[in-house]
Fold:
Amino acid sequence: MEQRVQNIVILTGAGISKESGLDTFRDEDGIWSKVCIEDVATPEAFRCDPEKVQGFYNARRRQLLGGNIKPNGAHDALARLEKEWPDKAGGKVTIVTQNIDNLHEAAGSVNLIHMHGEILKARCSACGGVSPCEDDLGQGESCPDCVEINRLRPHVVWFGEMPLEMARIYDLLEDCALFISIGTSGNVYPAAGFVQHARSHGLAHTIELNLEPSEGATIFAEARYGPASDLIPAYVVELLKYGIAKK
Ligand code: BV8
Structure:
């Protein structure tokens, strides 16, 4: 019988960018230990105090662009897997990232879905147009599409907003042979439910690669713990050499 192609879906979270110098959210020194979600990461917060919200994202955008932040070995290994896996198993590798940084792109990943948006893009509240954004927002800039003034917000999905490309993500989860979760605490839905979806709707093997067990650790068929820049390169070598090993 002809062997089915083996597609891989990889969910990444803030933990994969930690060793590149970007903070996570829920670690001890994480972002949510310094600022309240309700104050900076909801549509209501933006309506109440747009300056505070713009300032929160302007600071993170400046850090990403000016803070010598580069992809680490984990990002590089995933870009290698995307390039070499098709010859190995005929399938495709797609990264679904919760992260709003551009480190997967910078490492060379192409099949990439930013389900929570991108900090280096702005979205116009007047026309919905999305455009590149490397400067501070909230200083009276105009939309490059409809030229409305001061209508640009970060192209980021806030709590209470629908994440992007969900239909495509569920299709990918239902048609993958391997679901890998990297650097995420499994606190935020619907991303935290992807492992269950991959297991119950398909034949996927599921593995968690994280610094420590996530909220959903027990749902995974396999788990390895340690820093992403150690775990991911080694796991990619193993996949390319031996294929998907069902533990
Ligand atoms: C929505 C962008 C519905 C902004 C973010 C059930 C179903 C559906 C929704 C809900 C539900 N229950 C609750 C909800 C609501 C809510 C939610 O999940 N709340 C939580 C807090 C309970 N979800 C939503 O609101 C979502 N929207 O459901 O809409 C809807 C329906 C109809 C119509 C309209 C709407 C939207 C959620 C998206 C919010 N935006 N980000 C920004 O970045 O500022 S989410 C935020 O958390 C982060 O951006 C991040 O993407 C996300 C997840 O965090 P992690 O990436 O996991 O980071 P964390 O720090 O938590 O963990 C890091 C991990 O890395 C740790 O485990 C650590 O051990 C590990 N680590 C650390 N160092 C390393 C490492 N691992 C490896 N190596 C290392 N070196």
